[in-house]
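Thread: "does anyone have the structure for this chain?"

Original post by V.I.:
We have the sequence but no experimental structure in hand. Need at least a predicted one for the grant figures.
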Amino acid sequence: MKQKSFKKGVHPYEGKSLSENCPIQCISAEKIMVYPLSQHIGAPAKAVVAKGDRVLKGQLIAEAGGFISVPIFSSVSGTVKSIEKRLVVNGSLCDCIVVENDELDETADSFGKDRELDSLSAGEIIDIIKGAGIVGLGGAGFPTGVKVSPKNADDIDTLIINGSECEPYLTSDYRLMLERGDGIIKGIKAVLKTLPNAKAVIGIENNKPEAIKILKEKTAGDEEISVCPLKTKYPQGGERQLIYAITGRKINSKMLPADKGCIVVNTASCYAIYEAVYKNMPLIHKVMTITGEAVNTPCNLDVPLGVSHSYVLETAGGAKDDVVKFISGGPMMGMAMSSLDVPVVKTSSSILAFSKDDVADLKETSCIHCGRCASVCPQRLIPQMLGKAVKAQDIEKFENIGGMECIECGCCTYGCPAKIPLTQMFKLGKVRVREMRTKN
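Reply from O.Q.:
Generated one for you, tokens below.
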């Protein structure tokens, strides 16, 4: 059977063999837990607790700060020590709720109480998802409750479950599909109940044959859910690329997937939906991959939100002495970390440790007009021209030749023999376009 895919893209070194066979291990919380109020796309949450308050595991500590926002819950029981600015993973300072863990693990009322899907209406399911603080756990962090409640719910015919995990090194979603597939399927069922005319398709790259096999077995005979093997290629998990590969429909920057009858939800988000809908558990933990050539013991850990990255790495066995770089997220779209003393948040997917900094070692030279950047761009842009426009500060031209269609996947930078930091340039260009639009 021919594997479905999108056009162009790249196939970098996968690195998944380091951790793909490591079962998920749960770790405990640490003594001081830090919960940033901004952990997602949209408005920051608003604290509903104050210094000195006692909180319980699963208790609301910050409410959504707007329509595009989500609430935050404590992953431990303990006492609020302060609400103060702390360093977060992107290197900025953010208002955070700091809780001292009393290690009693006392839970909020109804936390973990079983619920039956059949007893819930579509509206109730959406309210539960919104109320549980679930966001896109594949990296973007868009509020899931907003995503699964489009204005045109009756027009949605395809619910796409993103099991691609196309970023090199990452294996947490893969392990979730192997070990917690039943919960993922139940989460999909919950979302389908909110979309009356939709069927679900689970897209999985063919470098994960065991996950394809297991989920095909679990959905055998199910008329609502099917599994679609995808060609292993980056960025197969990009929303636009995934929609095109599975449905043949094209999405651009001015459209939402719902405009083409699709909604895309990550597998980890589906598992979080399962816990919220069936188990009355808000999002207070997530599975992370700890890996890289400079990690002592590559693994996949189920981590309470609010612990520090340094604590997670130490619990995993630490890094080797020759480590020179840490990355949060995948090596293609993740970000280098200047400090590990930052909290794990909803969008944290990994800690990658390397003994060589490939980016720092690059020496940029002049463009040789080879066209490799254009040959791999999944959006069919001409990165060379976009780069020239940014360098010339011709932001209007950057926009006119498609700069806002860039998905920042990094394929052009990866393939550039001149080592030009094209993706970073386009990020800057998009910021300038938004500033120009605001002024106008």
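V.I.: this helps a lot. The CA atoms of residues 14 and 168 lie 4 Å apart.
O.Q.: and The first strand starts at residue 24 and ends at 26.
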